[in-house]
Recover the amino acids of this structure.
């Protein structure tokens, strides 16, 4: 599965905002090349809401466990909730460098985030299902608030 396939799929969700900061944009340089997914009926970045999923293409200063950016490595991160994260990933230990395996997010696993480095044959269908579920969850939460 390519990153573009994920982007193309998520862009088909109703009222989704795919934020993709590029070189020279007003967003922080460290975010350039990454992608952030939000439920957003008005097309604006929601305030006080985290994305329901992200795609990151490089290591961040406090997030290096997946060794991203080397040899085309990238990672999709999806908020699935704590209980679902444990169901999907078990109790560990986990190798965050392994590809095509659903593992807890290296930093935010305890908050209900899972991740997959370079999703492929083993995880493609699950990743797409989890993205749809995370989108639906965020939509329901935001609709209840309004």
């Amino acid at each position: 599965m390519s990153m573009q396939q994920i982007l193309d799929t998520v862009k088909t969700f109703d009222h989704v905002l795919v934020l993709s900061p590029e070189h020279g944009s007003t967003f922080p340089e460290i975010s350039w090349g990454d992608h952030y997914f939000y439920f957003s009926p008005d097309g604006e970045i929601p305030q006080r809401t985290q994305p329901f999923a992200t795609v990151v293409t490089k290591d961040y200063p406090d997030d290096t466990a997946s060794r991203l950016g080397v040899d085309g490595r990238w990672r999709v991160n999806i908020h699935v909730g704590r209980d679902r994260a444990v169901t999907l990933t078990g109790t560990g230990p986990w190798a965050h460098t392994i590809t095509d395996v659903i593992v807890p997010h290296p930093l935010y696993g305890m908050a209900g985030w899972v991740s997959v480095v370079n999703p492929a044959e083993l995880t493609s269908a699950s990743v797409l299902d989890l993205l749809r579920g995370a989108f639906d969850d965020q939509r329901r939460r935001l609709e209840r608030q309004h």
User: Anything to note?
Assistant: The mean pLDDT is 96.
